[in-house]
């Protein structure tokens, strides 16, 4: 029953699909309908519709794709399948989390955050920035969990955010967001003032992470490219946008080592025939030489279950940490020269982990889109 409620539109009771009239759409109130029902409820002029569950009125233009459901449909593959089989494969093989790593704090939740897509930590202040699908797209939490600021209005103005995909925080304290709605990169200070909007011919800017020098490494999922952005955020001036790698396959998540400058990227490989899509983790040196990679097949040699990676980070020792939505876990893959290793760090308590970051005190932050929360683990 829970699975049907998740995968079917509760108006027409048709199963959601990745495209066409069955594509899942978010309403501003947080409820999800298929595109066909959104159009039918909007009437002939498609201007206003009333949520059939909470009766909140909104405009059709205020709806947006439900990214977590679309990602889940991608994991299930074109042949369908059950959530149980997709998300719990190998669930009993991961083992317990290492001693001393425990859940310290849980933030957000439904209503506070709606379908969050990215999380980043400010190493200087300890604040957390979260990108989600609410009316104000960026929430800033303090180290103690208090919500300090909300900004990034949904709209069409230059610094409004249409559809945030990821977020990072630079060393000088600026929040940088990829906006899939108008294919741009936007920067704000922690008070919510927009300082820069870069539109450099990006096809679909997706993941991003800040380097220790204050630059931003950015993936373009449609162009298959990796960029390095250099900017004076205080003055709102973009200095340079340089492509540093091309011929990647749908790159999304990206992370930069704060010690070595190495860069790790998650590629999303297309499904062939009835098979499910898969992911591949690639690691480059600071000079952009490929030093290691690991796909689902390679990981299956050490862990006999499907791995589908949605987020990546480096810990302070330079080890690669990834989320896996199939086993609902956070996994350490080791340093690049150690591949392949498989060390589960968190193997319970997660629903659909989509974001990772480390705080200055080495606490591990996991963004869980399944229950719209931020979970902070520490030793």
TrEMBL record:
What is the superkingdom listed in this entry's lineage? Eukaryota
Molecular function, one GO term: ligase activity
* CDD domains cross-referenced by the UniProt entry: NHL_TRIM32_like (cd14961), RING-HC_malin (cd16516)
Renumbered ranges of NHL repeats: 108-144, 148-191
The record lists the catalysed reaction(s) as:
S-ubiquitinyl-[E2 ubiquitin-conjugating enzyme]-L-cysteine + [acceptor protein]-L-lysine = [E2 ubiquitin-conjugating enzyme]-L-cysteine + N(6)-ubiquitinyl-[acceptor protein]-L-lysine
The record's annotation in SMART domains points to:
RING
Keywords for this protein: Ligase, Metal-binding, Repeat, Zinc, Zinc-finger
List each copy of the RING-type domain by range.
9-55
Write down the top EC class of this protein.
Answer: transferase
Q: Which Pfam families match?
A: NHL, zf-RING_5
Q: Does the entry feature the keyword Nucleus, yes or no?
A: no
Q: Which InterPro entries match?
A: 6-blade_b-propeller_TolB-like, NHL_repeat, TRIM-NHL_E3_ligases, Znf_RING, Znf_RING/FYVE/PHD, Znf_RING_CS
Q: What is its EC number?
A: 2.3.2.27
Q: Which GO terms describe its biological process?
A: proteasome-mediated ubiquitin-dependent protein catabolic process; protein polyubiquitination
**Protein name in the entry:** RING-type E3 ubiquitin transferase
Organism of origin is Nyctibius grandis (Great potoo)
Starting at the broadest rank, the lineage of the source organism is: Eukaryota, Metazoa, Chordata, Craniata, Vertebrata
């Amino acid at each position: 029953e829970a699975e049907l409620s998740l995968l079917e539109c509760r108006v027409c009771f048709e199963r959601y699909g990745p495209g066409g009239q069955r594509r899942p759409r978010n309403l501003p109130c947080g409820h999800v309908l298929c595109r066909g029902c959104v159009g039918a409820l909007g009437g002939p002029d498609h201007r206003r519709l009333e949520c059939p569950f909470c009766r909140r009125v909104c405009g059709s233009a205020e709806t947006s794709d439900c990214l977590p459901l679309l990602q889940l449909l991608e994991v299930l593959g074109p042949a369908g399948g059950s959530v149980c089989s997709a998300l719990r494969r190998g669930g009993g093989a991961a083992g317990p989390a290492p001693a001393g790593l425990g859940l310290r704090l849980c933030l957000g939740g439904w209503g506070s955050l709606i379908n969050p897509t990215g999380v980043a930590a400010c190493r200087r202040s300890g604040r957390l920035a979260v990108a989600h699908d609410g009316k104000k797209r960026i929430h800033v939490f303090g180290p103690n969990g208090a919500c300090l600021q909300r900004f990034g209005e949904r709209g069409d103005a230059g610094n409004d955010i249409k559809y945030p995909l990821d977020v990072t925080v630079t060393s000088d304290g600026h929040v940088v967001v990829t906006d899939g709605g108008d294919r741009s990169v936007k920067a704000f200070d922690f008070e919510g003032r927009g300082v820069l909007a870069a539109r450099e011919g990006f096809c679909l800017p997706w993941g991003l992470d800040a380097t220790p020098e204050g630059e931003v490494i950015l993936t373009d999922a449609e162009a298959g490219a990796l960029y390095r952005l250099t900017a004076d955020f205080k003055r709102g001036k973009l200095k340079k946008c340089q492509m540093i790698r091309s011929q990647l396959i749908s790159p999304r998540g990206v992370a930069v080592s704060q010690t070595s400058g190495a860069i790790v990227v998650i590629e999303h490989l297309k499904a062939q025939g009835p098979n499910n899509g898969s992911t591949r983790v690639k690691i480059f040196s600071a000079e952009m030489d490929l030093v290691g990679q690991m796909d689902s097949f390679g990981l299956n040699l050490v862990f006999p279950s499907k791995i589908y990676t949605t987020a990546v980070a480096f810990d302070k020792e330079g080890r690669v940490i990834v989320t896996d939505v199939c086993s609902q876990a956070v996994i350490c893959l080791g340093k690049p020269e150690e591949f392949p290793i498989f060390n589960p760090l968190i193997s319970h308590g997660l629903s659909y982990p989509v974001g990772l970051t480390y705080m200055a005190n080495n606490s591990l932050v996991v963004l869980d889109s399944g229950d719209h929360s931020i979970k902070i683990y520490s030793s």
